[in-house]
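S1.2 Input.
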Amino acid sequence: MKFPRKPREPVDINLAPLIDVVFILLLFFVVTTTFTRETQLKVDLPEAVSGTPPEVMKTPLEILVGVDGSFALNGKSLSKNDLASLMEALRLESGGDKSLPVMLSADGQAPHQAVVTAMDAASKLGFAHLRITTVEAQAAQ
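S1.3 Output.
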């Protein structure tokens, strides 16, 4: 006895549900990912124990921060101790050359806000080479 064969239906894979799942996973990963903002100001911290002075081709701008949070630029005291006056003094002293290195020398007892203000002034003006100076630690005797 001969049985009639059923006609075969072509196998078809529907990709629409797969694409929906991929987009939902993509959305999930985008929403749950945390992004960090990197600051634009690079700071090279010298070693305090065995640091060596940097070799500088150009004359650096030196910002001094006193114990009371007062600012001095290249040995000249500023009349006001705020961000705007420090930025103006940096702009005048540099003559628009943003490639000059900036050296930040702060007293050990200086307020942290004054140091951050000096770093912020250099950053806002576009100075990219900032060094924080330290003194070499003395060996205990």
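S1.4 Remarks. The first helix runs from residue 16 to 32.
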